[in-house]
Amino acid sequence: MLALAAAGALGSALPACSVAKGDEPEELAEYGYDPDVPEPGTVETPGRGAKVPPVASVRAAWLPPVGRQTMPNCFVWASVYGLATFFAARKSQRPPTTPDRQAGADYAYIRSEMANKIADKTCHGGQITKCLNWLRSNGGTPSLAAAPNYLRRGPTTSCDVNWSEYGSQTIPPDPSFNIPEYKVTTITGQGGLNNLRAILASGMPIAYGTSLYTDFAHYRGTPAPYVGNGQWVQNRRTGKGAGHVMLIVAYNDAYSPKSGAVRVQNSFGTSWGDNGFVWIAYDALEAMAQGRGVYIPVSA
Predict the structure, then answer these.
(1) What CATH number did the domain enclosing 76 receive?
(2) pTM score, two decimals?
(3) Residue 8 falls inside a structural domain
(4) Predicted pLDDT of residue 27
């Protein structure tokens, strides 16, 4: 989810994920997530200390820069690039402003797909928890400096290019991006919003899956908070509802006179939304979200 301009030829390796023509997020057949399949794992209620404040945010300096996916691997951008980079920055107290401090998303995608026995060069997505399980078993993942994301090369898609680069090449992991045990909780339904508040108030972001409305891909920051048009996006490959994964980084119970909202970091680049972020109204979150969020406990 890095918003750096493409440099050099379309097929060049970039320290972050820019988009070549034909790889725009809104043009992808899918973003990489099935919202009808719940994240596996034991669902737990996060520990709650004192009453949470009406407004809270994770430390913005520890978030990786907003980037732009070119494959159906949103779940990797939110988990490996998002959660693991944030965890490493928080632990080291060093903002992830350079590629050597940012976890490589597309390398992690290819290698985790291989570990989960996905057919070569299919790039049909996956789940947050399965990707994080790979990350932990691998002892981390290389940084973007060591394993850059690759753009498409002419008619060759970024999926094929990245699989060709990394399908047979193992790059040693950077252990700073290894994470401790993650947790799964509910963020919708009874108690869901309180769970979300407790995690964010502790200072940790949440990766979550969601269905999408048809106006979401072209959202440019207004109206805010985002409420959506109520019309669901369909996955062109499967005909089912299309899903996506993003990172929740803040909440405000009184964002507007009519609604509280959550602030979400997306992987569609900085020209999308409000410089790559969106405030989503609580009611819209409740309607759209799959229901489970994944996070790293602050005690880890």
Answers:
(1) 3.90.70.10
(2) 0.91
(3) no
(4) 52
pLDDT exceeds cutoff 70 at 277: yes
The two three-digit tokens of residue 90, written as one number: 């928080």
Q: Which of 199, 205, 157 is nearest to 59 (CA)?
A: 205
**Structural domains counted in the chain:** 1
Tens digit of each residue's pLDDT (9 = 90 or more) over 79-136 = 999 999 999 999 999 999 999 999 999 999 999 999 999 999 988 889 999 999 999 9
Distance from C-alpha of 2 to C-alpha of 8, rounded to nearest angstrom: 17
What are φ and ψ of residue 299, in 5° steps? Answer: -75, -10
As given in the structure block, the two tokens for residue 237 are 């490959």
Q: Provide the domain limits for residue 249.
A: 13-295
Residue 271 CB: number of other CB atoms within 10 A? Answer: 12
Contacts 24+ apart (CB under 8 A), 115-118: none
Write out pLDDT tens, residues 37-66: 999 999 999 987 678 999 999 999 999 999
Concatenating the DSSP letter of every residue in 27-70 gives GSS--SB-TTSPPPS-B-PPP--SPPPSEEE--GGGSPPP-B-S
Q: What is the residue whose two structure tokens read 């939110």?
A: 78
Token pair for 200: 């964010």
